[in-house]
Amino acid sequence: MTTEATTLLPDYVLRAECKGHIDQCRTICANPLVDGGIVTGSLDCTVKTWAPNPNYKEEQTNIENTMFDGEELNNARKQSEYQCSLTMVGHEKFITSIDYLPDHYVVSGSHDKSLIVWNVVDGTPVKSYPNAHSNAVSCLSVDKYTNTIISGSWDKSAKTWHFDKDAAISELKGHEQNVLCVLGLQNGIIITGSGDGSIKFWENGKETRDIAAAHSSCVRSLKELPGIGFLSASNDGTVKTWTLQGDCIGHIQAHNTLVYSVEVAPSGEILTASEDKTVKIWRGDSLVQTIEHPGCVWQVVCLPNGDIATACSDCVARVFTKNPEKVANPLIIQSFNDNIANSKKKKSGVDPTKLTTELALQNTKGTSDGEIKLVNNSGIPEAYSWNAAQQKWDKLGEITDGPGVGDGFSQRTFYNGKMYDYVFDVELEHGSGMKTFKLPYNKGDNPYFAAQQFIWDNNLGQNYLEQIARFVMDNADAHDTVPSDFVAGDPYTGHQRETFAAKRPGTESNPTTSSPFSQEQDKYQKELEERERQKKVKHFPATTKVFDQANYDGILKKLNEFNENVKTSDASLALLPTECTTLTQLCTILKAGQGEKVTLAHVAVVEKDA
């Protein structure tokens, strides 16, 4: 008896959302041991495995036949097909990259400078390299030809590792800035991409070729293109095709902002993931589909079964499919689309209903060259600038951030899709010459935060933090540089750029390794980390009265009973066995009262229980 092949959909559609991380989902890879299985790494310092529930369709059918209450039925319908099967805890800082290592392992790299190899069958760590690098591990890849682990770091080096050895096999040094992506190719070739915009080739631990200006900004991702060579993606928004001889034979302006990940589907289609909250799918240089997300998309990967999966800054991993039999139910898809729409509304800060239409704007003339007006384009606020020479309105782009429309708006400056009170011209040494960069700043922003973002966006060294912050304070009105209340973003979300010497117009730069700027950087970085910690850990430290003593055995018993009850109502919200073990360890530590360290993993379990 033969079974007819399923006719695939023309575009990818949401199959499932994987919700369980409590911070950004930063990296993702396929788990080929399970059909459709994935592994994720997060800023919450955990690695999780996910798999489709084989009984999902049957359970959904039973729900339809047995539930009649509207709200309860809708909640049941929204249960994801995918379930978290394992949570692996071991890294002390957030995870930057993961990859699958045959036959049943996954290796993770972290900002804590370490690499850990995990057994994805039972979640146990089987090998650890505590100080794999002298700075954060920024990327890793498993060479599919040799199963060699290749890691890259902010220490400007790449290293190769083998599972049965305790030390690095080789160290690849030569980049001037952070190594941000690595890839093993056939014939023992390794390529590395860096914050200095270059791509280097290595064989037997030696540099064999250097593409010094492969991109105009950081190289963020590399992917083999079978039969041709490889692809590279960059902060400059482009994806380039290269031969193994280092010749560029193709170029796509894939996005208008940072491209974090590039992938090649078995069909030959190219997938790109970007800061602009989209995954784009390309056939040659033609865009064939755009998949919007509620947050920045850190990575996209192809799964062996033909599906694709993404890691997103909204803490969720997602699986998309062309198989009509696997598509998520309409309620889940609607919720996903609603989240995308809400993220746009929250981001822009502009109420489009109060704006004129694009058609109405085109029927009016501007009053001065460069005048900016906002319009409502199908519910999305967009900015237009008056072109006096051609007597027409030029579209600048969609508004992705900024205050509401009000007095003084027309005096603000539109830059990179956002409105700013100031956009300074800053002259920097770039290569062998000078280049003018734009430094955007809004009233009330912390000058140090604005300086840090400028460093990230324009590839400057951290030792210039103080100089740039002082530049802002010197050139903006004094009352405009008093920081308002804010919640700090994560300082390590990938915007670490290459370094160039910088100077203010009319002054000479003189960077030194003993610069006092580094002390300000340390102070600033500690403030960022503390604000982020307070943002994520909402129950600690306690700000109300606490008990000096507690019945920890009783507390643990009640929590376990509660967890069992949750399993029967919504298993996706229940603690996993590994998390129950972590909770037991925490109660043991607190009961002993001997000052043993309570880790982020312990706190994360309490946060989930809460």
Can you walk through the features of this model?
Residues 499-537 are annotated as: Disordered. The protein has 610 residues and is of the alpha+beta class. 21% of the residues lie in helices and 35% in strands. The chain has three domains: 24-346, YVTN repeat-like/Quinoprotein amine dehydrogenase (Methylamine Dehydrogenase, Chain H); 420-536, Ubiquitin-like (UB roll) (Roll); 552-609, no CATH class. It has ten helices and 36 strands. A four-stranded antiparallel sheet has the order 1-28-27-26. Strands 2-3-4-5 form a four-stranded antiparallel sheet. Strand 6 and strand 7 (105-110) form a beta hairpin. Helix 8 packs antiparallel against helix 9 and helix 9 (577-592) crosses helix 10.
CATH topology of the largest domain: Methylamine Dehydrogenase, Chain H
* Distance N to C terminus: 53 Å
Please give the radius of gyration in angstroms: 26 Å
Corresponding CATH superfamily of the largest domain:
YVTN repeat-like/Quinoprotein amine dehydrogenase
Question: Average pLDDT across residues?
Answer: 80
The main sheet orders its strands as 1-28-27-26
Alpha-beta classification: alpha+beta
How much β-strand is present in the residues? Answer: 25-35%
3D shape:
globular
Instruction: Give the oligomeric state.
Output: single chain
**What is the helical fraction, as a range of percent?**
10-25%
